[in-house]
Amino acid sequence: xxxxxxxxxxxxxxxxxxxxxxxxxxxxxxxxxxxxxxxxxxxxxxxxxxxxxxxxxxxxxxxxxxxxxxxxxxxxxxxxxxxxxxxxxxxxxxxxxxxxxxxxxxxxxxxxxxxxxxxxxxxxxxxxxxxxxxxxxxxxxxxxxxxxxxxxxxxxxxxxxxxxxxxxxxxxxxxxxxxxxxxxxxxxxxxxxxxxxxxxxxxxxxxxxxxxxxxxxxxxxxxxxxxxxxxxxxxxxxxxxxxxxxxxxxxxxxxxxxxxxxxxxxxxxxxxxxxxxxxxxxxxxxxxxxxxxxxxxxxxxxxxxxxxxxxxxxxxxxxxxxxxxxxxxxxxxxxxxxxxxxxxxxxxxxxxxxxxxxxxxxxxxxxxxxxxxxxxxxxxxxxxxxxxxxxxxxxxxxxxxxxxx
Amino acid sequence: xxxxxxxxxxxxxxxxxxxxxxxxxxxxxxxxxxxxxxxxxxxxxxxxxxxxxxxxxxxxxxxxxxxxxxxxxxxxxxxxxxxxxxxxxxxxxxxxxxxxxxxxxxxxxxxxxxxxxxxxxxxxxxxxxxxxxxxxxxxxxxxxxxxxxxxxxxxxxxxxxxxxxxxxxxxxxxxxxxxxxxxxxxxxxxxxxxxxxxxxxxxxxxxxxxxxxxxxxxxxxxxxxxxxxxxxxxxxxxxxxxxxxxxxxxxxxxxxxxxxxxxxxxxxxxxxxxxxxxxxxxxxxxxxxxxxxxxxx
Lengths: 405, 297
Fold this sequence. Notes:
The complex is a heterodimer. Chain A is of the alpha/beta class. Chain A is built from 17 helices and 9 strands. The longest helix of chain A has 24 residues, at 188-211. Chain A is globular. By secondary structure, chain B is mainly alpha-helical. In chain B, helix 4 (101-113) packs across helix 7. Chain B starts with a helix and ends in an 8-residue tail after the last helix.
């Protein structure tokens, strides 16, 4: 009896192994995703993976790691974990993960990727890593996002291009009973940084970061004073700077008209308030005589392949399959994001593709300032600026200089 | 029975090996790492560069770390005084034989059952909300102007208040278990002798709870030193100076942050060592100041 049982078990084992061997006739790539299962992006990626497998026979094994992936990925790459594709901020991929990423240059050329991508992101990737090491999945652009219906209700016909025009728009909105500007505390550093960039440019701010001298900088004092005047004029929504995302949600609730942020704010507000805001976007207004009148924040979540991957071509093909053409369009439509492929249409934010393609002076996220040792204190001071804690721009700049002592 | 040393060793080996691998090794590695320049947490030791005490000097001169230590002290001292005092008060009340004590125990402990993420979100997005929050509804009902509970000045204290709310139940249960261990005949004798309730509390309950108080102070110190989740939820997008705590600073130092690509695992390890030393120092001081009672009961 025992012998029969042993023979049956052995047979079952051999057959199982055989079945695995037969099933393993196609390649398999392992993809670590920064999304969580059930999120719009995850749904599209999962569908695209199935479609890719049906078309090529390559199975994409997706592991949903969530946002904490950015804390895991470098260690995983160092340990040569079994993965062929991963997602992260393109800035981190370009600077932190670069030593462990695959050079995509040849594959990109063969696939004609240049015609389906934004030069600004490719240029940054090459500048940081020395070669193209990421494929953009979710491009972001910063600026002033506004409710077109609110503008129409206030009789505003043109988007403001200068600070004076912006203040005029604020006044018209205010007169129409709509709070002009939503502002959450989480993004006060971003808003004020924009104001600073318009006066000093990123190079000027890097100089301030390094050596201080805020009070001697006419641009810094003027930028702070303009924010103080904006607050004193009552152009911020009630309660602003509020706790994220309370203030930005006011746009979806019809209580505010504009917000300075990156484009993901549109999807967030729509989802949080259950509305479909008629979004518009214009670049942060220029300052007369300022340094960088057209600079705009650009960022992206991108895909990269570990240098040690044995299925780099398959992983690259899937990245292109997901981000361009039909699936790139679906990703843009379902996730209310800017298409990663500029030949696709941006249905959620008309004009965003053109803005990214025309980007000649891309801004980083608060540039060099966020590497200052007192950055957390600085951020609180930027919020205090919007809270009306400083009487003048000179007071604010003097307080900033005190951080260098 | 003759002792079989080999067998004892074999039985102990799995536990000892697990302890060495999972506890002693990371601790020793962290301490050593704190004296080296190490960019990545998982970098090979061959990539480490000896740095002496530079990592410690670096964090001690860093404004972010100093702010985080100030916030830690506020949480530890202010939060500790309120949490431990209130939980002791609740414990005394709930062991005094009041009606519905089972219900009150459950109600006060309830926040500990709810996920801390849900609890903090409720405080941030509802109770402290400027427009429709519970507190501002109360404030406007009383005829005052709305308050910005999460402004840069108020945020730390709001966070501490919310954390106290979430912590009282846990410490209350510890105190209740201590109080219930005190023999009731001590109180009966004191009552016959004419001692008031407050006299009984200060002369019987409190002295006999010394050991429990020491434990709760140590637990609270560990809680305050490893405070992380509430800070993250009170500054969800990026770390803010008003709510930064040492562990958040450590995390940002080791892994970078939004738009920050610089990483320093060595400095992060130094923060970890400093926090551990603080806990040890507090433990030793508490042991010295609150000597265990010689009373037996």
